[in-house]
Amino acid sequence: MNKHDIVEEIRNHSLRLDSHDDLDELVDAIGDAQIVMLGEASHGTSEFYSLRMELSKRLIERKGFNFIGVEGDWPSCYSLNQYVKNTSGAPGSVREAVGAFNRWPTWMWANQEVMELGKWMRGFNANRDESKRVGFYGLDMYSLWESMEEVLKYLEETNSPELFKAKRAFACFEPYSREGQTYGMAAAYLHETCEEEVVKLLTSLQERRFNGRVESEAELSAELNAMVAVNAERYYRSMVRGGNDSWNIRDTHMVEALNQLMRFHGTGAKAIIWEHNTHIGDARATDMASEGMVNVGQLVREQYGRENCYAIGFGTHRGTVIAAREWGAPLQVMPVPKAIHNSWEDLMHRAGAHNQILFLGPENPLFQTTVGHRAIGVVYYPEYERGNYVPSNMAERYDAFVYVDETKALRPVVVEEVVV
Asked: Pfam families of this UniProt entry (predicted)?
């Protein structure tokens, strides 16, 4: 396919994004979708966060969305959730709330952009009935030990009969010094697993729901934390063995967490999801499918129906980003080089060196062309940029695409950091 034709097609079908008011076109296109997935091409770009925030505000105000679920851990996000809902025992300030994001990479959620969102949500919820306040939840599963601690804390406070099972499960993990890789090595090669203990705990907590006993968000949180422990145990065990199982365990967990939240919020619940493009853009439209990988975007479409979901990818031509040179290393402001020739971002730039919204769809054959689409992780090497492009059928991967011609690094908030 001639790339010049694609450039012309983008030029003819895109809308200028000159102000946040231009996002209203996207809100209209989303229509009655039950789940809206908002991506990002990196975990360290200010505009991706601020644009998702503005879109989320409109969806909450005009479309009645119930919560935002993000690519973050349940316990730390629950701290911000308590703040925005102003519940009993909530952090006293948004700065204190984001202080809970102390796991590397802290900057993903401990940043000024998220603080602005938290303040807005707190204000929006202020005059609403407690049962109708909009929530902020973490869908991810890296918080094995923190989640176990939260389960113990809840069961102790409620004098629950499941407390003994929780203590037994936590004790099983204690010898591994909060190191997922250490546990994974022991489980994979020495067959020393805690699988039975955490599964029994989760089963006991789930029985409360099946018996109609889950009435509060605190009970939901206990069950979600137990589910994190079950799936994180599987994740660390599979990660040591290599292959794609660990990726699939993680994304499947995030959808399971989403499903729990949808059930908790009742019939007609509506969710906004913030995750990297590699999670929310349908895996079947990339080379992930040939490698046996699934992701959130694919699973959500399969389970809820494509007509009930709306996926929006985000990207940039150049700019700066927060990332690190290796896992656990200090964050840096790094350059994002100009997009490589004939990549999706390059085609968007050639169509117009300005911010744009492009509505995609399977009916347009030119947007069905497979092109390289940039993905930047928390570990990034700008000098090896060519390896960051994922072959993508853009019209199948997303429903729409938000393009920012030049972006800048987000604004992190310094917290005491834990490297895992």
From this structure: Erythro_esteras
